[in-house]
Amino acid sequence: MLEILIYGAVSSAIYAMLAVGFTLIFGVARILNLAHGAFYALGAYAAYVFTSLLHWPLFIAAPLAVLSVALFGVLMERFLVRPLRYSQLAVLMITLSVSLAVEQGLFITFGSEYRNVPSFVAEKVSIGGVDIGGQRLLALIAGVLVLLLLWLFIQRTRLGAAILAVSQDPEAAQYMGIPTNRIFSVVMAISAGTAALAGVLVSPFLTVQPTMGLLPMVKAFAIVIVGGLGSIPGSILAALLLGYSETIVAYLISSSWTELVSLVAVVITLMIKPSGLLGRRAAF
Amino acid sequence: MPLLEVKDLSVRYGKALAVEQVSVTVDKGELVGVLGPNGAGKTTLLKAISRAIGSTGTLKFKGQTLERLPPYDVVARGICHCPEGRRLFPELSVLKNLQLGAYLRSNKAEIGEDLERVFSLFPVLKERQQQQSSTLSGGEQQMVAIGRAMMGRPELLLLDEPSVGIAPRLKGLIFDAIEKIRKDGTAILIVEQDATATLRIADRVYVLEHGRTVREGRAKDLAGDEYIRQVYLGV
Question: A27: which chain B residues are within 8 Å (Cβ-Cβ)?
Fold first, then answer.
């Protein structure tokens, strides 16, 4: 039981980190970013390059990996997405193209074989008799911290208030002197950065390979549909639901059934409450 | 030199010409009204001045051109826009909405003074400052919208139909507040459909129809104009 509780919390924290960034950029800029999984993969590969190839210390490599991907996200928004923002379909297409281009770029540069990233914390920790890898525990703590800091940033800072204003009415926000395009860049940096951080944190215990962004992208999508597109609390709630459901399914049935959980959750949500758990309007 | 100088301004929405060769001036401390029916181009004119939409023609504020500036730079120069339909941030509190009006300012003491000034203009907002703005009545929301624009400490306030959709009792309060704001030295360009109230409080008035200026002059003179009396005052 305690094992399910702990491992479910780890999965939920990673999913929440992924989904919050995905829903944030949609909620503020109405960008449905299909390249979100690519940010996660780039984060893991950046960690691999900085630690395993360049042999930089982890405490430098990890933040640098996150910052590099955040910068990549900002450049993508500025030069590829912004000129097409008038059309949601065009945004979907361009972000899908970026996702595929990143995947192919990783294939060409690193090949298809799995890569290893050293653990930040190698030791195992015992909680109530349950052994858990230190790296997984770090991912859980980092996930909770990131969500808490993000909440504080949005609720307590001037820039956070501007993000909320732009998400609710971008035109009115302009009349307050809020530079909306700059806000979109900031939000894209946060979105790409949190996805990259999730990639960095899981890279020591999951496989680092070029297609690793696809499944998390599907999970992030499923979470925001279940939670309500654009709703951050909804995403956190759905991440908890999905994280624990998958862990329970893995323990009671088999880990090969876990990928079905998110798809079943999406179908049930779309049938019963298309706006999601905490969404205000139908997502689709 | 006028505070605001709009000369031969035109705005197109695709092939449709929404505003055609309109010229407007506002002097320091002046209250200027723009009257006209729905679709006359009044809101478009204000949006063009705020640079929320593109336009051709001359746009000058304190002698400096506004053309090609992004909207946030127009606010930084001293023009604040209270848009049509109030456009509050519905999930934020009254206080957060008002504070966002001062987004470009950093002097906390001055912001505090201006907040008190807004509360003295609209005392009900002080009581409701922690309330979510979407739960307020239409009139109260309009007070927040005007107060929020005032939090930018503007030299020129653009007001877009502040009396639309609010109870007659609150309309009087809104127009009284607008007069107070002008008396305190802020120039105002107000777009309205309520001709009687606008002609009462304005120094000068422009009348737009189909995107063109059809009348302009001192409010007192236009109040006696036969066309205005028949079409806008219904007498």
Answer: none
> Which among A37, A166, A101, A113 has a CA at the least distance from the CA of B103?
A166
Residue B2 reports pLDDT greater than 50: yes
Verify whether the Cβ–Cβ distance B80 to A175 is below 8 Å: yes
Name the residue in chain B with its Cα closest to that of A160: B100
Determine contact: B227 vs chain A, CB below 8 A: no
Structure confidence at residue A3 (pLDDT): 85
* Residue whose C-alpha is closest to residue B27's, from B169, B166, B174, B202: B202
CA nearest B229: which of B202, B207, B212? B207
> What does the alpha-carbon distance between residue A240 and residue A71 come to, in Å, rounded to a whole number?
29
Instruction: Please report the pLDDT score of residue A262 as a whole number.
Output: 87
Residues in contact with A236: Cβ distance below 8 Å, sequence separation at least 6, in sequence order: A16, A19, A20, A147, A227
Domains observed in chain B: 4-86+152-231 (3.40.50.300)
Composition of chain A by helix, strand, coil, percent to 5: 75, 5, 20
Indicate yes or no: CB of A168 within 8 angstroms of CB of B91.
yes
Q: What is this structure's pTM?
A: 0.91
Mutate one of A158, A175, A278 to test the B interface: name it (highest B CB count within 10 A).
Answer: A175
pLDDT score recorded for residue A280: 66
How many CA atoms within 13 Å lie on the side-chain side of B192? 25
Contact state of B103 with A178 under an 8 Å Cβ cutoff: yes
The pLDDT tens digits of the residues spanning B77-123 come to 999 999 999 999 999 999 999 999 999 999 999 999 999 999 999 99
Residue contact B149–A162, C-beta within 8 A: no
Residues facing residue B1 across a β-bridge: none
Which of the four pLDDT bands, split at 50, 70 and 90, describes residue A284?
A: very low
Residues of A in contact with B150 (CB under 8 A): none
* Cβ contacts of A169 on chain B, cutoff 8 Å: 87-90
